[in-house]
TrEMBL record:
It is a multi-pass membrane protein. It comes from Spirosoma endophyticum. Residues 96-314, 506-708 form the MacB-like periplasmic core domain. The lineage of its organism: Bacteria, Pseudomonadati, Bacteroidota, Cytophagia, Cytophagales. GO terms for cellular component: plasma membrane. It comes from the Bacteria. This is Duplicated orphan permease.
Amino acid sequence: MKPPRWANWLLETFGHPDTKEEVQGDLFELYAYWVARVGERKARWRYIRSVLKLLRPLAKRKPVVDYSTPFYLHPDMLRNYVKIAWRNLIRNKAFSAINISGLALGMAASLLIFLWIQDELSVGTQYTNGSNLYRVMENEIADGRIVTDEDTPGILTDELKKQFPEVVHAAGLSSKEGHILTVGNTIARQTGCYAGSDWFKMYSIQLLAGTPDVALNAPNNLAISRKLAETYFGDAQSALGKSIRFDNATDYQVTAVFENLPHNSLDKYEFLLNWDNYLKHNPWLTVWENGGPDTRLELRPDADPAKVNAKLKTFLKGRNKDISATFNIELFLQPETEAYLYSNFKNGQRDGGRIEYVRLFIIVAVFLLLIAGINFMNLATARSAKRAREVGVRKVVGAERSSLIGQFMGEALLLTIIALELAVALVSLLLPVFNQLTDKQLTLPFNQPFFWLLLTGLLLVTGGLAGSYPALFLSSLNPVRILKGTLRFSAGAQLFRRGLVVFQFVLSMLMIVGTVVVYRQLQYIQTKNLGYDRENLISIPGVGEVAGKYPTFKQELLQLPGIQSVTHMMTSPLENGNTTDGVHWEGKDPTLAIQFNNTVVGYDFAKTFKVKLLQGRDFSPAFGTDSSNYLINQAAAKRIGYKDPVGQPLTFGNQPGKIVGVMEDFHFQSLHVAIRPLIIRLGEAWWPNNILVRTQPGQTKQALASIEALCRKLNSRLPFSYSFVDADYQKLYKSETVVGTLSTIFACLAIFIACLGLFGLAAFTAEQRTKEIGVRKVLGASVASIVALLSTDFLKLIMIAVVTASPIAWYVMNRWLQNFAYKIDISWWVFALAGLLAIGIALLTISFQSIKAALMNPVKSLRSE
């Protein structure tokens, strides 16, 4: 029993020599199938009719007779693959649109994330000698804990240059401050710092005018940016040697003009002043026991940082008189290139920082690419039945599996190329919005080889991932089973596809839970009672006559309508980092060094801040001795240990006094930090760095207009500036807010792309069970029962994903919350809400295909039977 002779001719003409026996065996098996089914006489005609119908598209093709080139690499076949890929793309518009949009969205989001990550990794790395630059950090070991910060003594730089031969240059840097700069009629508030004379020798900042040796080597020297030079003098060269008046009080000479700092610069300033001038105005910095500014070093290229660290560890012993058996300060170096990404320390050891967000978004980018790739796999598999006969015909005429894999991988790459082009266009449109959201200046760097490598990597990884499974699956199909029309998928293949869906929704569930937790923590931060009322509280910088005539300014403010009370504060009301261990009281262990935060305020502090007094009173002009008395918070009262602290003696430094009031604990730092012991001194006559004004609720707008008029009356030549304390508070958590917004966007995107994949699997299942659905409808099944039948299996998959993702999400988000001293608890309903959301969205997606299949005419699905 053999098939017709023309089958052998077909094999000789179209087949490859290496696969003749295999294809011939398939032909014999197919013929035997028809003989067994309809008899030998009818089998010949049915066999001929069926095979000719399948091979009709190949009738016009010239026989492949050049076997010197592999069959699947022959130019004719390559052109054929391209044509078929393009025709499939055009003919299946819905499939192509879903696939391309899913891939484009995934790649666009990943590309945006990669650009953001590249920018984050570049912060502080732009200096030519960056590998030799270090920051001096200190670990304060006292009271059973280790606090790490950058607040070093102001005279540290000169001493290090003398004592350490490894140090090439050293410079101090103060915190950024705002000053009024005046040249003629041009007046503006600018921000800048004091820096050591070695600053421009250490940092490779381009000088447009002046030299590094002269820029900051004298007390009245001033270096300004190109922006300020153009604002005040027109250009850089015209600015050199000119004078600028500071705060309408002191003149400084421009000795250098530097190029505007790049957006990825870690230190942001518009001008720099001489360091000696800073020490002159702040003599307390010349004492080893006090810290405040940063200290930067440049080591010799051959220097060993570990050896320098070993010597720095005990450097302050013998210099800082406070160091004892119970209190110590150990210095160490942190590379400049790590300062931005690794800014958090715990127990004296590096404990993350911005690098945590970089790692987080790397994972998010990979998640989105995986979800988009899995989506492609599921949609390609859903169409496998339509491509199966094509595969069968190609195998029958001699196509090798490798050629089929190449064909389907090529089609996947074609779709990916189109999706990548759309992704780049989408990123170009979204970059302005993304930059505004993240406070970046990202661009598409088409002129950088790295960017093209990134695009190529995205193309190959995404295309390879998306096309791998469909290519391997379709190329493995048995041609005899295909041409018999008995194509069925193994349990292993079904399990794999379902596993892909579960994996997709596990990733999506992780992102949903993460978004909910971040949102709740941000809400907690924004609504938490800080212990004082930050609403209707205005902060005015103390400059010019407003500060110089503060008592007059305060009295006139209190006469204005809408003003409740006025005070001033030496430090920021939100970021008080001043600490001291020079607090003493009766019964204190003399060997114990306890760190207290401290600040100086004016009268009416508690009234203006609306801080609750638990005992005693606020500072008052009625008590002349209050200049040597103190207010403390609950944490300080607990640490001091007085049973009834009001009226008890307390000494700050060398100034003895008494405790006049105990305030309820309030937050004077970020919620990342637990409330610490706080001691407040009265300094009504001190220079008011921050003037705080509380307005009547609902009258802030009118009060602001009156305050501005009064400020302009006293500072006629200075611009009026102010800020709302509640707005400043929000800025403390800008990074968390950005992360929360991006997480929400990417989580929604992940769910959308995952649902596309679910849509594909639902379509595949409906296609596979078309005849079953037709039989059920003929037997009386309702549309609702059929929808339930098709939906149940998918809902099981989503439930498995929810159960799998929940513990992983809890662990990851619980670790993130450890960055906050005050945080929410992750409740069970967060996972329930995320699960219900995932199930609800999935059910809507599945229902579309299920209802469509259930409404199909059974006659149409059963007519071939």
